[in-house]
Amino acid sequence: MKRNLVTLLVIAVLAVPTVWAGELAGVTMADRATVGDQTLQLNGMGLRKKLWIKVYVAGLYLSSPSHDAAGVLATPGAKKMIMHFLTNKATKSKMDDAWIEGFKDNSPAEWAALESRVNRFIGFFGDMKVGDVVDMTLVPDEGTTVAINGQDKGTIEGDDFATALLKVWIGDEPPTEDLKTGVLGG
Q: Is the CB of residue 158 less than 8 Å from the CB of residue 138?
């Protein structure tokens, strides 16, 4: 009888769906995210550091994992980037400068077409604090929706904007190579 009980317990434990998660710098992210009727997988997590300051942990969610930046950018379908802030030093002014630099450096040929939308996008942000979470959901033909701490801030139209936004982290000029490698699962 005891053996049957142990067997049932083992079966019950194995039958419970396990939700794996990624962990980096004290931030845990779920291994899956849902966008509409699509389930995305955590591709990787990266830490943004500026000098010795840990600024944020970013997690990239894709329909299927990829270590190839060009492949990620070319793959159709929804994508999601989540940022968890680890410092109170990410002021609006610093964030605005970083966003503009990231877009200009990684999409210079597209900058003129993107500039007004980038300005609207950075208008969603204020001073970021420890524990703030930014959720950017990129859906083809619908736009990029931004939520901060669960509050919808707005949607920026255009698949070109969504691609340029992803290039901020995985383009040729990311904030750091470690961050790019991390979100690409390397």
A: no
